[in-house]
Design goal:
Helix content: 25-40%
Pfam families: KH_2, MMR_HSR1
CATH architecture of the largest domain: 3-Layer(aba) Sandwich
InterPro entries: G_ERA_dom, GTP-bd, GTPase_Era-like, KH_dom-like_a/b, KH_dom_type_2, KH_sf_prok-type, P-loop_NTPase, Small_GTP-bd
Bound molecules: guanosine-5'-triphosphate
Distance between the termini: 51 Å
Largest sheet: 6 strands, mixed
Membrane topology: Peripheral membrane protein
CATH class of the largest domain: Alpha Beta
Shape: globular
Subcellular location: Cytoplasm; Cell membrane
Subunit structure: Monomer.
Radius of gyration: 21 Å
Number of strands: 9
CATH topology of the largest domain: Rossmann fold
Strand content: 15-25%
Number of helices: 9
């Protein structure tokens, strides 16, 4: 008997682009579950996050990258840039995301990072924001002169049909090889990592634009404890690291109200994500100027 099913395909796809173009939104839509965190605040995606999605015979392994920094060059930003370069060097396909109809010097800088030899799709996102569709064709013509893109894909990351169509487009760029992950795996990140990302997301959600993006979250303790009442129980201690006393007061809020909300929402989300009982304790510490201190950036886990 001959096997007529299509051969398995599997490969790495990097999603790159300047801050705020919608990379995290796209990744979440592609993976179908919230993995990388999103927020209206630029530069919230600091880690290289892998999302996995298996559709038909093809397994897509997505590598999200932090927003490429062009304005400042602190140690933190240097570390972010290194992550971007590391992520684009060893992939099968690059999705270069821009806002449809726009191309800024920051976009050009990201484009200049791409190594020759790797196919690049120009993903023109936020198509829903373009009111004059007729302007897109001449803009695509201009873009074609800037780089030898393999294909142009105008989409809205918020439109499910566009996102499904993108899978069909990407599939042919993945090499024929056996899958690396099980069909239902969505991320290879640890629960500890999910814990820090979840606290960080709530932190930014409840402080809005007041808190600088240099604030971070460190997990001091992540331990499973026996419990007679629950099938699984995890105790987590997290520290929110901010740069100034004023930021600390902002995070804690009047009478500790804001920190309490951050903690409650993070705990509830983690209980759902990990399907277990969670005890979460959050501290706030001031570390002035840590974004400028290379050694400290390393000690917080950004290589
Ligand atoms: N109208 C519209 N808004 C979008 C679309 N995709 C993303 N956005 C919004 O654009 C903002 C930035 O999206 P993110 O996904 O956080 O952007 P990012 O590129 O990951 O940003 P960094 O993490 O800073 O690199 C958010 O407010 C999204 O809701 C889209 O297709 N249409």
């Amino acid at each position: 008997m001959t096997d007529t099913s299509p051969a398995q395909r599997c490969g790495l796809i990097a999603i790159i682009g300047k801050p705020n173009v919608g990379k995290s939104t796209l990744l979440n839509a592609l993976v179908g579950q919230k993995i990388s965190i999103t927020s209206r605040k630029a530069q919230t995606t600091r880690h290289r996050i892998t999302g996995i999605r298996t559709v038909g015979a093809a397994q897509f392994v997505f590598v999200d990258t932090p927003g490429f920094q062009t304005r400042h060059s602190t140690a933190l930003n240097k570390s972010l840039n290194k992550t971007v370069m590391g992520a684009v060097g060893d992939v099968d396909l690059v999705l270069f995301v821009v806002e449809a109809g726009k191309f800024t010097p920051a976009d050009a800088k990201v484009l200049s990072l791409l190594k020759p030899g790797i196919p690049v799709l120009l993903v023109a996102n936020k198509l829903d924001m373009v009111h004059r569709r007729g302007d897109i064709a001449p803009w695509l013509g201009e873009m074609q002169k800037r780089h030898d893109f393999a294909e142009f894909v105008p989409i809205s990351a918020k439109n499910a049909k566009d996102v499904e169509r993108l899978f069909g487009i990407c599939e042919k760029y993945l090499p024929e090889q056996p899958w690396w992950y099980a069909e239902d795996e969505l991320t290879d990140r640890s629960e500890k990592f999910l814990a820090s990302e979840t606290v960080r997301e709530k932190l930014f959600r409840f402080t809005g634009d007041e808190l600088p993006y240099t604030s971070t979250v460190v997990i001091d303790k992540f331990e499973e404890e026996p419990s007679p009442k629950h099938k699984r129980m995890i105790r987590i201690a997290a520290t929110i690291v901010v740069e100034r006393d004023g930021h600390k007061a902002m995070v804690i809020g009047d009478g500790g109200e804001r920190l309490k909300r951050i903690g409650t929402e993070a705990r509830q989300e983690l209980e759902k994500l990990m399907d277990c009982k969670v005890f979460l304790e959050i501290w706030v510490k001031v570390r002035s100027g840590w974004a400028d201190d290379e050694a400290r950036v390393k000690s917080f886990g950004y290589e």
